[in-house]
Amino acid sequence: MSTAPATFSESVEHIIDEFSVTPNPHPASEADRNALIGAPKFGTVFTDHMAAISWSRTGGWDDHRIVPYGPLAMDPATAVLHYGQEIFEGLKAYRHADGSTWTFRPEANAARMKKSAARMALPELPTDDFLAAVAGLVRTDQAWVPTFHDSALYLRPFMFASEPFLGVRSANEVEFMVIASPVGPYFSGGVRPVSIWLCRTYHRAGPGGTGAAKCGGNYAASLLPQEIAASKGFDQVCFLDGGEGTYLEELGGMNIFLVKADGSVHTPELTGSILEGVTRSSILQLATDRGHQVVERKIPVTELQEGIVSGEITEVFACGTAAVITPIGRMAGQDFDSVIADGDPGTLTMALREELTGIQYGLIPDRHGWMQRLA
Ligand code: COI
Q: Is the pLDDT of residue 2 over 90?
């Protein structure tokens, strides 16, 4: 059900037209592309092109271009390699039954990238340029948007300090780019209840830090805890607040929700060290629409532990663009190990997942006007 065409403003279309396009001289053949699109592992296959816009302190944003996908030549002194001045986004392009291609709330990603840029002393990219780069790339590589169930073209906009300079200050030269990767479910084995290790030793972010920005450093900080969790046999790690180590924060690449027996839906409030997920805010809206009480608040980890055991917490799930809505079936830490609702994925969890993906894939009406047609 691709309802009313959600078209871009004239100013966005104008910027899309202004992108120079250098076609890839060696695009994947149709047979190779189809084989690659079927590759099951998240983030390992990329399309024929990438979009880029360059910034300099004197010239602003310039040189809008779509070029063949390929390695970047970098001076070893490039600032991002030393001080990590970098931010990124994640959104998806979805194929609808009529062959059209759509994306979900791209303005929210553009707005979040501006916030991340402000925190990381990077230049703000105007929303229209962000949308034009995403749309221009998807239109160029639309044959790469998968058609099969639970698959999409994952879009990864990112921005980094490209100036070769070793002084510690914000860069005078910056690149914004978008790459695209056909993906299926984020977790191996498809949509299934995942297991979470609660990390008490390390924090991903702290008060006054960069936790609310989508910057690479936050994800780098999550890698060792993630490895520890994986070595214990868990799919993901959950972090507690960096101040007291008392409250649930997020999973590093995903937000977390609890559902209580009374039907209320709870998620950690945005304290400044949690990423404001676009999927998170969409779930808050969809659960409210369904008549659930929706609560954003500080959630003590003890409440989670005790609630799972007592049965007061009936469902727990993770969410994000990559993870969509993924049920959590087991949570454990140094002093507890609990299976949630006998490993059942959860009625509300799966209903929200079905509704959200139904909107994204054009199967049910988009009553909030979240979908944007790309091609
Ligand atoms: C996303 O969900 O888009 C993310 O950024 C999470 C992860 C793949 C880093």
A: no
Atom of ligand 1 nearest to the CA of 91: 3
Residue from 44, 158, 254 to probe ligand 1 pocket by mutation (most atoms less than 8 Å from CB): 254
Contacts of 267 (CB under 8 A, 6+ apart): 255, 256, 257, 258, 280, 283, 284, 295, 296, 299
| Ligand 1 centroid from CA 167, angstroms | 31
Atom of ligand 1 nearest to the CA of 321: 2
On whether both 110 and 41 belong to a single domain, the answer is yes
CA 301 to chain CA centroid, Å, is 25
Does ligand 1 lie within 6 Å of residue 90's CB atom? yes
Q: What percent of the chain has pLDDT over 90?
A: 92
Q: What is the CA radius of gyration of the chain?
A: 21
pTM of the model as a whole? 0.95
Assigned domain for 324 exists: yes
Q: What is the mean pLDDT of residues 257-272?
A: 97
* 327: containing domain: 194-344
Return the SS3 of 122. coil
Q: Which of 341, 334, 352 is nearest to 287 (CA)?
A: 352
Q: What is the mean pLDDT of the chain?
A: 95
- Cα(204) to ligand 1 centroid in Å equals 15
Q: Which residue would you say has higher pLDDT here, 6 or 5?
A: 6
Residues 100 and 211 in one domain: no
Residue 73 is encoded by which pair of tokens?
């030549």
pLDDT at 323 over 70: yes
Q: Compute the average pLDDT of residues 216-222.
A: 97
Q: Of all atoms in ligand 1, which is nearest to the CA of residue 43? A: 8
Closest atom, ligand 1, to C-alpha of 323: 2
- 349 found inside a domain: no
Would the CB of 326 count as within 6 Å of ligand 1?
no
Same domain, 338 and 369: no
